Amino acid sequence: MAASEHLVIFDTTLRDGEQSPGATMNKAEKLRIAKALEKLRVDVIEAGFAIASQGDFDAVKAIAENIKESTVCSLARALDKDIDRAAEAIRPAERSRIHTFIATSPIHMKHKLQMEPDEVVEQAVRAVKRARSHVDDVEFSCEDAGRSELDFLCRIIEAAIDAGARTINIPDTVGYAIPEQFGETIRQLLNRIPNADKAVFSVHCHNDLGLAVANSLAAVTHGARQVECTINGLGERAGNAALEEIVMAVRTRQDLFNIDTRIDTQHIVPASRLVSTITGFPVQPNKAIVGANAFAHESGIHQDGVLKHRETYEIMRAQDVGWHTNSLVLGKHSGRNAFRTRLLELGIQFETEGELNEAFTRFKALADLKHEIFDEDLQAIASDTKQKEEEGRFGLVCMQVCSETGVVPKAHLTMTVDGKEHTVEAEGSGPVDATFKAIESLVDSGCNLQLYSVNNITSGTDAQGEVTVRLERGGRIVNGVGSDTDIIIASAKAYIEALNLISSGGIRQHPQVADV
């Protein structure tokens, strides 16, 4: 194995994470997350799949132009057009990588690629060489390696390394592996491939059986020196290995792992909250490391033990992963410069003074409603402001909702559709139902409501509520997110944002279903 003095953290939140149904992010949102990942000291940021759409290309390029400390990577199928497009997108980066892949399992080669094994090897070699003509840092992935034959893996990996691949990724694409078996696969590959010492071996595990982190750690114990993961375990289907769990497992169990990451763990919780806010995927309270209950103790025995000696029931310190950052940062008397400075510290930067002024106005209005303004509130203000700046067919002007015991709830809304104001009203089983029915009476979207979720951004009864609305139409799924101290207004914002997203078109190409 090529020498690596630390465990490389390859974050794919912006690529694989975005493949979660409804988790599509725009360029500005991707750039905010990329800056948070850079602050976290992530080694490699997989910024996207450049050929998937013009939007993906623009986002990858913007990240390449702005990120200085992390390597910026773009995914590419083993096709010349993919590789050349990826190279063009990452060209501005100070450190760049092309990540090319092809399927290697019998089921994928036969039914998806419709290629013979010899053809697959030939195409893999050609792709790696093409990528090396653009950049020195090339990663090659054996898609569905978890169900591939070991002898064929050895053959194609040896050829890829000879062709110039510096990193070899072994993905458990469908989450099929079991830790002991997966770790043994990594050990055998490292022992059997003659030129294995010329590349860093990586793993990319999916969580279909809830084993993504366990499989990744098993691979590390057997010699893998890069782990591909996402913030909050975001990703298609059941998700990917969670970055925060990988990092803290290796950091906490140094008695078993003889290697550590470069991650600045104090930025883990802020990064988690940013990704949750932007994607609209709330973090479950009992989620390891970043869940609200991760360091909470209700049992009397546990509370007594922690008070006497923290290590009795805590194996990590909450402040080491960023929980201490959940503190008051600004108040109603804070000025515009203090507001701008704190936003920059959170990795939030507006492109125009007009956007900053709009956000500051929202901050002052919120400060009049709630005394304590937290970082999470600022993240929500920024997201709302950026959403408002983007053109959409639909907009909320004002609304009035009546909910009274013994009376059918009614919603009265004024909305804009293509710039023209319309007033509508409807009744429903509750105020949210009435609000959504009023909106639909005007737009008649034909969408199916798949998810309605409410999450408090901070603690207290004056907290902003964050609402996620998931809509589906014609097989396309989008998430709309809205926040407000009034949960009904937040619900209307979320529903309207989802409508704007689903009416905008621009469906992304999915890298694993595209024909090779």
Structural commentary:
- The chain has 516 residues and is an alpha/beta fold.
- It folds into three domains: 6-277, Aldolase class I (TIM Barrel, Alpha-Beta Barrel), CATH 3.20.20.70; 298-383, no CATH class; 392-502, Double Stranded RNA Binding Domain (2-Layer Sandwich).
- It is 39% helix and 20% strand.
- The chain contains 16 helices and 14 strands.
- It has helices spanning 27-39, 54-66, 80-90, 106-113, 117-132, 150-163, 179-192, 212-221, 243-252, 268-279, 300-308, 336-345, 353-369, 375-389, 431-443, 487-503, and strands at residues 8-11, 44-48, 71-77, 96-103, 138-143, 167-172, 200-205, 226-229, 394-404, 407-417, 420-427, 448-456, 465-473, 476-484.
- The strands form three sheets. Strands 1-2-3-4-5-6-7-8 form an eight-stranded parallel barrel, surrounded by eight helices. A three-stranded antiparallel β-sheet has the order 9-10-11. Strands 12-13-14 form a three-stranded antiparallel β-sheet.
- The relative contact order is 0.10.
- Residues 297-303 and 510-516 have low confidence and may be disordered.
